[in-house]
Amino acid sequence: MRSMILAIAGLAVASCGQPEPGAAAVTPETSIVAAPIPSPAIDGWEIDQTAYAKINTPLTTMAGAKADGSAFDADSLRGRWTILGLWSSPPPADEASFTAALSSAADQDPVLDVLVIHAAGTAPQPAPPWPMMQDSGMLLSTLAPPTSPAYLLVGPDLNIEAYRGPLSATPDDGIKSVIRGVAEVRKHMAAPQ
Predict the structure, then answer these.
(1) Count of other CB atoms within 10 angstroms of residue 183
(2) For the chain, how many structural domains are there in total?
(3) Would you say residue 7 lies in a domain?
(4) Which range of residues forms the domain containing residue 120?
(5) Does some domain include residue 30?
(6) CATH number for the domain that contains residue 156
């Protein structure tokens, strides 16, 4: 009896994984589709060139006058972190209030500035409460952000370190997350590679 039970068990084990007679054989799927790897982001700031090709490149040479009439050139940003706003078209209605809040928050950081570059005709009226300059189109077309408005985080060495889209697209904590992201990018850049 024991040998009969062992024989039946052996047949059962041997038949596992075998198709039933007359059944079509199933072959395992051989092609694997890899999902795209999302670009790294820190609190909404993209830090990889797949999001914006000019990340990790020097800021374009630029010069002009700020809205207050003072002269401006890119070298004046050296030694400080700067959030450079780029508005090539009129922004969403709430973007101006987010930008004003960002400028106010940046005033609390001794090494962080905000400068918004507006294409002609895109600055809110009356004059906004943040530092700005108007561009005839040359600088904005050279920087070519993928969205408008867009924001670049420029390091003290004038290297573009991060990119983000509109401030009005921030999560519920708004500008706090933008400033938190700036602090994280700064830590990321300061960490040994």
Answers:
(1) 14
(2) 1
(3) no
(4) 41-190
(5) no
(6) 3.40.30.10
State how far the alpha carbon of 25 is from the alpha carbons of 18, 28, 140, 157, in Å.
Answer: 9, 10, 60, 63
Specify the amino acid at residue 116.
V
Can you spell out the DSSP letters for the chain? -HHHHHHHHHHHHHHTTPPPTTPPPP------PPPPPPPPEETTEE-STTT-TTTTSBPPP-EEEBTTS-EEEGGGGTTSEEEEEEESSPPPTTHHHHHHHHHHHHTTSTTEEEEEEEETT-S-SS--SS-EEEE-SHHHHHH--SSSSEEEEE-TTSBEEEEE--GGG--TTTHHHHHHHHHHHHHHHHS--
Half-sphere exposure of 176 (CA within 13 A, CB side): 3
Both tokens assigned to 172: 């519920």
Residue 31 lies in a domain: no
Low-confidence ranges of the chain (pLDDT < 70): 1-40, 171, 192-193
In a domain, 18, yes or no: no
